[in-house]
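Objective 1b. Sequence-to-structure analysis of TonB-dependent receptor plug domain-containing protein.
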Amino acid sequence: MQNLSRSFLVSVSLIALAATSASAASTQLRKALSSKPRKPAKPAPAAAAVHSDPERITVHSDLQSATGVTGATPGGGMMPPQTAPKSRSGLTRDYIAKQSPTSNPTTMIASLPGVVTGSGDPLGTSDQQVSLSVRGLNQFELGYTYEGIPAADPLNFFIFTGTTADNENIQSLSLSQGSADISAPLYNAVGGQLSETLRDPSHKAGGLLNLAYGSYALNREFARIDSGDIGHSGIRSFVSFSYEGADNWRGSGRTTRYHVDGKALKEWGEGNRASFILSYNSPTGYYLKTPSMAQWNALGTKANYAANFKSGGASYYKFQENQRNSLILGAPVHLNLSHSLTADITPYYDYFWGYGDGGTTLPTGYSYVGNQNTGPLQVSQSGSSVIGAAIDTFTERNSGLNSAIHWKTQHNTLSFGYWYSYYTQQEHSYYAEADGNGNIASMTGRYPIMTQAGIPLSRYNINFVQQTNALFINDTFKALNDRLTIEAGFKEAMVSRMSTQLIRGANYKSTVNYAEPLPQFAASYRITPHDQIYINGSTGFRAPSSILTMADYFSTSTGKIAHSRASNLSPEYSIGEEIGYRHTGLVNISAALFNYNLTNRQLSSTVYLNGVATTASINAGGQTSRGAELELGLRPWHHFSPYLSGQYLHATIDNNLASGGDLLPTKGKTAVNTPTFSGTIGLAYDNGSIFGNFNLNYVGSQYATFMNDQKIPSYFTGNVTLGYRMKSYRFVKPPQIQLNLINLGNNGYLSGASSLVGNAKATKGVYGTNIAAQTPLYYVGGGFAGVVSVTAGF
């Protein structure tokens, strides 16, 4: 491992040296060209990508593709130019289109600086058990928008990126590490913002077909139809459908996914545009077992749920079935009201429904609903216990309107905005009896186990309502021929929550209100047309996650409280500062230093209640994070585009954490899920016919306990793309064949902590109490997979 790390650092040095040499070479080339008369340049084709700068380096791209690849973005599509006075990275079609068609945004951003992604599935077919962090802040602290619509789970904040667009329809991905845009409709983005944009419909009628097959009996079919411009209406649209099915890469079970994307767009006048978008997703899959360290060391990737009911009992894999259906609707509108006044309005509606199940064993002679003894269970089998499925059903509705108006003068742009959101969630637990073969009559709880009292056996029946109001004002001032930019803004986010628990004996109603001031400041200066420096200060907050945070629930076998509603509902709050530098040209460089101070750090952890994976929120007190990140990318040069990114992070816990009636001595310990170093080396090649990508990712070791007494080892992952693009033939746009090799040479690794705990070893508390050991559980990173896909446009 030391040799690999050393090789990685040497490679960083070599690429940096190459970048310096390339820059010097371009200067020499400029001098040579300027001393000789030059012939007039031929006009670039309409489809060509053209880039020109004072160094007189011009790139003309005649690349023709049906997938949207242009071959013009530095770093093989991983480093589009940025000008925001904050750290921001991105991906374009040059990179996205060359990933496996099964991949999702969570896996695609894994190579960007500061990002650590541990996918539980090499194909990306499931996003239910994925670990993701940015600068050591996990995905529950990362805001996620899709065409300006908040797209993460509105309460758990889990980023289900499979619910949004298919790979073929994603135009770009943008990641702001550390701070969200002040206008973004988010209230959890203390760790930054991931933004996804959908492609615009084509002006010409046509379509795209993609067929993919691969490891684990994968088969995927995708079809898209573009209407083209509809008469003289100025409206154009597209709709797409995809089906995907694959076996679990470890253990038993098969995942399926049905998905629809659609967009209608009208543009008129000077920059006015209005669109309507739709994304529907229906996946069915099975949770994979998250092993303890002892189970991993003993069994490795064989630590799975049982393939057979007779031998597995409650650990039978079919009891782990889950489904999260979604419908996302939105209508982003941009209006030019006058030469100095513009407006942005985005109404939206999100609907999520489904279930998550797990195996369990129940005593039949007695039962409790809440704290009430409800007598023996009404089951068909005799015996002292019965095996069945613990079922968690949910329905979520999230509607809202985000709006802003912008007034531009000679030097200033003043913006005012308002965001309103109304969110409801109903979550109910049931139990269902398994027959002699392990079959469940309904995995959605339509035929629940009843008690002698004639009511369904249940742990909780929760109704949750949340309203969000946010107001912001922001001013951008430009001077010195727009070389100096100063931004200052203020946002007030107000969140009101009410939760009711209908189970007997539980606290019926809980309410909490938050009103958080969120000021921001940023400044940037363009030293030259190619060089920019910036500084910024930002704030962010996040309310505690999980519907169970505000509710009591009871054991069905004892009638005692298994979980009490949280007594500390203080929101997480962050204050961050950055200083950064960018250079654009043949060689592109982005570097930044950052510092964050967090209070009431809210960590989301998975706990298993009667076999069902449930999200719980842990108040981890204060945290200080400091670090540096670097990103390098070369514009296509002789068809090659290398890329490099890396991050150094030092994150510490600021206080001792409560454990029972004592405190764990955690002050000064390294924060959980924060590898000291992570980085990527990438290389892309595309000559118009032959193309390929290679990415090698390294993630350092990271702790899974607050006492730093158990950690995940460091690991490498590597992905390769190889492809050939043919010439157009009649009405068929350039067909291509592509091979993606995912997690090359790796058959599984621990990629992140699923269940965080205070200590994995017995520990003496600050006040002398012996604090018993707990057992953290881990996500297993996906093994090797290969995918072959054939694509053609028309």
